[in-house]
Structure formats: structure tokens, C-alpha cells
Amino acid sequence: MSTCNTVPFTKLFSFADSTDYLLMIVGTISAVANGLRLPLMTLLFGELTDSFGETQNINDLRPLVSKVSLKFIYLAMGGGSVAFLGE
């Protein structure tokens, strides 16, 4: 039977230096931002459906939908960035 040396949770970070702490903080903030993507996407989808009901003129609809579509692209770019940093 082999024995495995374990480290108590209280001493788990005793060997971490400032770089390790910085990477853990960046990873934690990125993971939280990555988790906020889905609620933000549902808010943007609601904004998109509201833009269809705001106007009766088809010519006025395109700028409204384009603004919301651009927000979706920004959300995707930001989400990809934070997903990369979180891993």
C-alpha cells in the first residue's frame, strides 16, 4: 500500500509567490466575467425583441437592430477574451 503525502488546505498557498497570486486573481475575475455572459446575452436578446416592436417603419428598424447586433459582437469578443484568461 502506497502512502500519499497530502497538504492541508491552510498550507495550500504557502508556497505561492506574487505571480501566482496575480494569476489566481486574474483567473477568478475572468471566471466571474465569463459567467456573466449568459445573463447579459438574455438582456441583449430582450433588447433585440423590443427593437422590433418600437417602430412600424421598416426603414427605421435596420439601425435599431444593427446597434443590438453590434452589442452581441462586443459580448462575443469580450467573452472569448475572458474565457481565454480564465483558463
TrEMBL record:
Keywords: Membrane, Transmembrane, Transmembrane helix. GO terms for cellular component: membrane. The keyword Membrane applies. InterPro entries: ABC1_TM_sf, Type_1_exporter. It is a multi-pass membrane protein. It comes from the Eukaryota. The chain crosses the membrane at residues 21-44. Signal peptide: none annotated. This is Uncharacterized protein. It comes from Ilex paraguariensis (yerba mate).
